[in-house]
Amino acid sequence: MNKKAIALLSGGLDSSLAVKLMIDQGIEVVAINFTSPFCNCTPKSAGCKHQARLIAEQLGVEIHMLPKGMDYLAMVKNPPHGHGRGSNPCIDCRIYMLRKVKEQMASIGASFVITGEVLGQRPMSQHKKAIQIIEKESGLEGLILRPLSAGLFPPTVPEQKGVVDRKELLSLSGRTRRPQIDLADKLGIKDYPCPAGGCLLTDPIIAARLRDLFNFMPDFDMSDIHLLKIGRHFRLSPDLKIVLGRDRAENERIKIHMKQGAVFIEPVNFRGPSVIASRFPGEEKERMIGEMIVHYSKDMFDEYILSIQTVYEEISTFSVQGKADSEAFLSFQIGPVRQEHQLLDTHSH
Ligand code: SF4
């Protein structure tokens, strides 16, 4: 067994500390960071990978980025070990990542794996039974070293073989972050906290939108997944979903996700949200969508004119007379209705 390991580096404090503890023992560490459409750390800039790159640079370790692709989404749809309180399949997510890491071990020349897991810190994936399942099903039994909690687990193979000194490893457990913050100070590690939260799969609105997508659009692709993170979503019928932008930037962004058969509806003589609808809505639903767009407009007119266009830019117009008071359309909203600009309720790694 050599002194080279792959570390799962999320960019959060725990995995950063785990890597640092290993480097200080003379272990050569290569970091792997998984990128995901559900990462919510720095959505307007470079994404979570930006944080991982920063910390890898700080620690002086090589870093590889691996995307969680369509195979990951297939797992999220139907995870053998179930979901958490949102659509987060944490146990299967860890198994997925560790299996991918295992596939990289030979080419990287690593003989074991490091993670920043702390026993008992996360309700779903970091209690002892879950950790045993994850280890067994990833095919890495005895080869996953958790430097922050190692003292609470039986010695791993690298400890047994003397590649890693068990006496230098920690026995942290539970949800308190104080010991990690103190250790970061001591080891000179700069924390890059994730300002917006972390994993969108734990967000109840994203979870509801994802369930809706899995139910009504089995042939979804990554563009559909990215669209889940933008605007307001309504299902008006089994084959008609609409997404309204909440501001000018979102009005532009939703248009990028238009597909063959979809239509784009936008205000002509007033300011208000743009909409993409998954198909031509027909007269009755067209009126309803028009009224919704008008509802979210701040402009007050007698007649609101809207245009409707296909991906081929065939344009027609229709109009809505006055503003309706009713918010009955909210019953079509997918998932809980959230207040404007309410922060996403996610948790980070
Ligand atoms: S919270 Fe973490 S472990 Fe759970 S699904 Fe999200 S990324 Fe995976």
3D structure, described in words:
With about 350 residues, this protein is of the alpha/beta class. It has helices at about 15-25, 50-60, 70-75, 90-110, 130-135, 155-160, 180-185, 205-215, 220-225, 250-255, 280-295; strands at about 5-10, 30-35, 60-65, 110-115, 145, 230-235, 240-245, 265, 275, 305-310, 315-320. The protein has two domains: about 5-185, Rossmann fold (3-Layer(aba) Sandwich), CATH 3.40.50.620; about 205-330, no CATH class. It contains eleven helices and eleven strands. Strands 6-7-9-8-10-11 form a six-stranded antiparallel β-sheet, with helices on both faces. A five-stranded parallel β-sheet has the order 3-2-1-4-5, with helices on both faces. Helix 4 packs across helix 5. It starts with a strand and ends in a 28-residue tail after the last strand. Iron/sulfur cluster (SF4) binds near residues 89, 93, 94 and 125.
